[in-house]
């Protein structure tokens, strides 16, 4: 029996389009913090605001966009969001004040929430049912690859040109190319949902405890996104781009084996490894004074964080009926946005009082809270709800 085709023209165009869009996003991850401090002359705590408002804007839009994609169709909304995203990315060059930059981040975060929600939804439409897991995994590599090359390219552009405006325009051009590629993707016809907009169609309470763990685990990631460039600058390390590359390598190494470990050992064993890796990586980062130590910390953090997402997402899917998986997934990813948003604001205030290295050490100590929540409450809740979900599905 031959396999249903996966690598179709439409699927590949969609993946490459999403890759270009994500690379443009990661252009700004290591460069926007220095734009805030060096060009706009703001303090380091303000960096947390530009990351936080972006994530919180995506959080507000994401549940509504998921509903809109299901009710009104994918193509027009997705293309509209990508066009707007490209325009806003190029418009960063117009930011001459911190207030205007915050406004751009607010708008940009909203369109990011729509584009990322649509990207995953369209992927599930384009891949055959029999190869859905494989297809979604391949699509997910676009984000991992963009994390590896985006910061490197963005920093290199800034180094060669010395112009933030050129960097922002280049980012907008990349997004425009992504839009162009998306125009040539043929979308299969999907029946529109007739559900009315209601709380139960945008939030799934059954996965609240797992989502709370993810929210807390997003805090240190917010610290990395917001302040790793400034921390490297403080240590006189020029390899911020290499940090993200090594981090992505760690994620890529551990992620393919995570599912197998989850199936054989269960979530308790897998998450124990994740907590060990994440805490160890944060401690190593807080104690880093040289480039080798800085990059070793990146690799260990990649291993620890690479386990979290697929493990907790699998738990979420296992806890609900098939027809509620979309809402459950939206709830889960919204917790990431909320965690990054709150974490960026909170840690931004921490660095005004303590040093960046102390902030990363506090993040390591703070991992005790999600660990206690997971092993003390969430794990037993998962075992009970996943058993009920399986029994219901078999009826």
From TrEMBL:
Keywords: Membrane, Transmembrane, Transmembrane helix
Superkingdom as given in the UniProt entry: Bacteria
UniProt-listed InterPro entries: MFS (IPR011701), MFS_dom (IPR020846), MFS_Exporter (IPR052714), MFS_trans_sf (IPR036259)
Transmembrane segments: 12-29, 49-65, 77-104, 110-128, 135-158, 164-186, 207-229, 235-254, 266-287, 293-315, 327-347, 359-379
Residue intervals of the Major facilitator superfamily (MFS) profile domain: 10-382
UniProt GO MF annotations: transmembrane transporter activity
Keyword hit for Cytoplasm: no
PANTHER family according to UniProt: PERMEASE (PTHR23531:SF2), QUINOLENE RESISTANCE PROTEIN NORA (PTHR23531)
Protein name: Major facilitator superfamily MFS_1
Protein's organism: Marivirga tractuosa (strain ATCC 23168 / DSM 4126 / NBRC 15989 / NCIMB 1408 / VKM B-1430 / H-43)
Lineage: Bacteria, Pseudomonadati, Bacteroidota, Cytophagia, Cytophagales
């Amino acid at each position: 029996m031959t396999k249903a085709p996966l690598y179709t023209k439409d699927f590949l165009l969609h993946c490459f389009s999403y890759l270009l869009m994500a690379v443009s996003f990661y252009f700004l991850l290591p460069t926007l913090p220095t734009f805030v401090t060096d060009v706009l002359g703001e303090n380091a705590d303000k960096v947390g605001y530009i990351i936080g408002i972006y994530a919180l804007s995506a959080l507000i839009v994401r549940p509504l966009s998921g509903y809109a994609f299901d009710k009104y169709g994918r193509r027009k909304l997705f293309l509209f969001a990508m066009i707007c995203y490209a325009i806003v990315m190029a418009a960063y060059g117009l930011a001459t004040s911190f207030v205007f930059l915050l406004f751009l981040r607010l708008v940009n975060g909203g369109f990011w929430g729509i584009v990322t929600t649509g990207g995953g939804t369209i992927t599930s439409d384009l891949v055959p049912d029999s190869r859905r897991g494989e297809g979604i995994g391949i699509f997910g590599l676009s984000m991992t690859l963009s994390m590896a090359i985006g910061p490197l390219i963005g920093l290199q552009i800034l180094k060669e040109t010395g112009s933030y405006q050129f960097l922002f325009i280049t980012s907008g051009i990349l997004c425009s190319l992504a839009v162009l590629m998306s125009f040539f993707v043929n979308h299969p016809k999907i029946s529109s949902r007739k559900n009315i907009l209601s709380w139960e169609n945008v939030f799934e309470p059954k996965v609240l405890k797992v989502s709370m763990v993810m929210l807390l685990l997003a805090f240190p990631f917010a610290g990395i996104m917001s302040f790793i460039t400034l921390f490297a600058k403080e240590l006189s390390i020029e390899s911020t781009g290499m940090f993200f590359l090594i981090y992505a390598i760690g994620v890529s190494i551990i992620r393919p084996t995570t599912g197998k470990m989850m199936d054989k050992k269960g979530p308790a064993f897998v998450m124990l490894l994740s907590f060990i890796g994440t805490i160890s990586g944060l401690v190593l980062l807080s104690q880093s004074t040289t480039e080798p130590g800085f990059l070793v910390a990146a690799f260990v953090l990649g291993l620890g964080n690479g386990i979290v997402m697929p493990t907790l997402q699998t738990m979420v899917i296992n806890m609900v009926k098939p027809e509620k998986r979309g809402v459950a997934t939206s709830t889960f990813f919204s917790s990431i946005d909320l965690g990054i948003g709150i974490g960026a604001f909170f840690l931004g205030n921490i660095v005004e009082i303590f040093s960046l290295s102390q902030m990363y050490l506090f993040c390591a100590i703070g991992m005790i809270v999600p660990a206690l929540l997971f092993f003390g409450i969430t794990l037993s809740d998962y075992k009970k709800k996943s058993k009920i979900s399986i029994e219901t599905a078999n009826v």
